[in-house]
Each structure stands twice: as structure tokens, then as C-alpha cells.
Give the backbone structure.
Amino acid sequence: MDLLRDAVRKVRTRRPFHIDAWVVLPDHKHAVWTLPLGDSDYSGRWRAIKIAFAKALPKTEWRSPRRVAKGERGIWQRRFWEHTIRDESDYAAHVDDVLINPLKRGLVEAAGDWPYSSLHRCVARGD
């Protein structure tokens, strides 16, 4: 997790964005971000985070010849789902969905029990 946090910090210094909600699950992650006005490059940020994280990991995993040829490590899914928030109701629904995802997946009995979630930050701030 520390390597992922470092990768996110590194990218945010070059390409700012606000993390509204984030959860990291065993096999994927969910996030709601706010980008600077006039900026909609979510893809570039995700790509930069994935690259920074992958470069920080020790290169111990086996890779197929195809992955080697493509320069891929197989850590991340190749694509992601992007959704532009329509209004306050849509925003609230997506933030809630991100924060309760560990509970929906059956990983915990209460959303607050999952350690890799921005829910803890929200609670600390009184959101």
C-alpha cells in the first residue's frame, strides 16, 4: 500500500486532482476524483499511477513472452471504467458506492472495517 500511496502522491504533484473517495480491494480499486477545471484527463493520471507503482515494485514475477515484448507486467487491468458525474445526486451515489464496496464484496462486516478506504478520512473530518 505504501508504494501505491507514493505513486499517487508523485502523480498528484505533476498532475493535480482531488481524491473524493477511494478504496483498494484485493483485485481492483475504485475512486472518485475531482480534476482541475477544464481538465478531463483521468486516463493519463491512471496510466501515470500504474507506471509509477509498477516501477517501484521488485521485478520478481514471471511474465509471458508476449507481456515482455509489450513491456507489460500484468499487475493492472489494461482498462478502466470512467464515468462523468452528472449532478450532486450522482456524485453522492458514486462516493457511497466506492466507500461501501468492501462490504458489498463480503470482505468485511462493516465498511469502516476495511483499512484501505478513504472512508476513514471522511469519518475523521466529520463528512
